[in-house]
Amino acid sequence: MTTRHHTGWRSLAAGAATAALLATAAPALAATLGDWDVTGIQFINADCSRNEYVVNATFTGTVDDGGGFDKVRVEVWDDGTLKDFRVVEVAVGETVDNTSFLSFVGTYLSGVPGVGILLSDADAAGEAGPVLDAVDPFYPEDEDGPCEFNVERIGGANRIETAALLAQRFIMADTVVITTATDFPDALTAAPLANQLAGPLLLTAPTHLPAVTAAEITRLQPTNIVIVGGETAVHPDVEAALTAIAPPGATVTRLSGANRYETAVAVAAEITQDSSPQMYLATGQDFPDALVLSALASRESAPLVLAQAGHLPAATADFLAAAGYDDLYAAGGTAVLSDSVVDGAAAVQGATAHRFAGLDRYETASLVLQEFPAEGDVMVATGETFPDALTAVPVAGRTGAGIALSQTDHVPAAAITEIQRLTSGFAFPLVTIVGGEVALTATVHDELLALFTTAGDRAQLPRDELDSNYPG
């Protein structure tokens, strides 16, 4: 069981440097911060250390920074260096509970004690403004655990075990999402929801709850368990088993419809969009073209709905008519989704239609991946089956990583190009292979490792001249 350092506060007793930051903070027109807390772990092994922080905060939007949303910024600093940050959008006039994941590779005790966690108002561009609150130093717990560099693998004996191993990258989660392991549509649309709810996407057998899935739910102790799919996909016996292992007071709910298209709409209705509303459209008849599209929808806080190749189902059409979006994105060529379907879905709201279509699933996936900015991380999953790529989505969302698709024993050239773009120039790049060697062989690992000629130096030089993790 993970030991967590969990500190909650409303009014923070800060150190001298933090107090100086706060002294200039909080003009009247800034987002309002309610209760907030931090959980932190530093995973250490012989090769390197990886810091992970979960910041839970309640924000109220007050200033329209664009599209009716206020922006705030959550940062982690170490030894005067900004290590990671997230920009959070809050609708003006609304109060939301937000979870932000922050991480970096390195040993926090190399200079100034601890790390600094800083919450600030932000401008329309997401740049930090007045400080709302901060803590410095904050000390994570040290724990033996996963820390790799350049190329790592997260893979179990099967798709259900791999999903459980991916879930272990969450040091805490208030919500977990559950779908069937045997078919793709529910997982395809559920991945963006799991990402938005800051929890993992776990898999179950249709008629019984696997032990590894149950074990992860027991470890995380979520307050909400969301089943996606009808009773054929996830039998009532599974729901009963989930209710039995749920913590006291936790809720178990189901999002479903009469078919995959209605279930997708039920999930899409739960997605809260940001200031740049978008819609994502995939075929409900096969998975390859849509795997990375689901990851992009997650990144953009947008719903993903399903259509047939030459027909927009009534449930999808009704949802689109009631939704708001400026751009619609679809994956696959005209044999997958016809022009009439894609253009018609965009026309419902007068939106602009965009299509990602390559010569095959791998090229299509790489075209979608081009929409991800380079942040030093990328996950690689098989394009032959659906579960690994989709259960990786919430984990990728924690660090902003993109997801590339690979053949079983060879990484396609288009994917290699995007992986290089996403990781080049970073001091500590990381490619995560998702799935065991049956899904992606050792040859794939070797091809990816060959992209990195040298390992990054994990050591941090002492910064004894600093008395704060924040600059200045």
From TrEMBL:
<dbReference type="Pfam" id="PF04122">
    <property type="entry name" value="CW_binding_2"/>
</dbReference>
<protein>
    <submittedName>
        <fullName>Cell wall-binding repeat-containing protein</fullName>
    </submittedName>
</protein>
<dbReference type="InterPro" id="IPR051922">
    <property type="entry name" value="Bact_Sporulation_Assoc"/>
</dbReference>
<feature type="signal peptide">
    <location>
        <begin position="1"/>
        <end position="30"/>
    </location>
</feature>
<keyword id="KW-0732">Signal</keyword>
<dbReference type="InterPro" id="IPR007253">
    <property type="entry name" value="Cell_wall-bd_2"/>
</dbReference>
